[in-house]
Known about the structure:
A 4-stranded antiparallel beta sheet has the order 1-2-3-4, covered by helices on one side. The protein has one domain. The chain has 2 helices and 4 strands. It has helices at residues 2-20, 27-76; strands at residues 86-90, 93-101, 106-115, 124-133. It is of the alpha+beta class.
Amino acid sequence: MLAVIASARRRGLTARRDLGVRRGFTLIELMVTVFLLGVGLAGLIGTSSAVSRMMGGSMREATAAMIATSRFETLRGSTCAAVVAGTATTRGITESWTVTAINTRTFYVNDTVSFVPISRRATVKQAYRSYVRC
């Protein structure tokens, strides 16, 4: 009988020791983890939307540069009498160019393009300059 009691005491001590061993996570640890994960995902979503707006704005800038380049090439293919100032609107981008004669066959052309990029609400103006020989 003494052996049974001693055996029961040993089991009780080991059972108490097992209660002291912690397994898993507490509720506070899980809540903190979920909160930090949520903050990280919110930052990631905010960054991705900003990047997509910037990409859209850069596409408009590239289109504006292409329109200005096209204008310079059009003026280069013209006769000297046809190289004059003007304005035009192409794909929602407004351009205005001025022509200054350097000599009878060389002109200085300043092409200003205006557009509203996707990432902003204000109008952006960019100036492109080139020399045209005819």
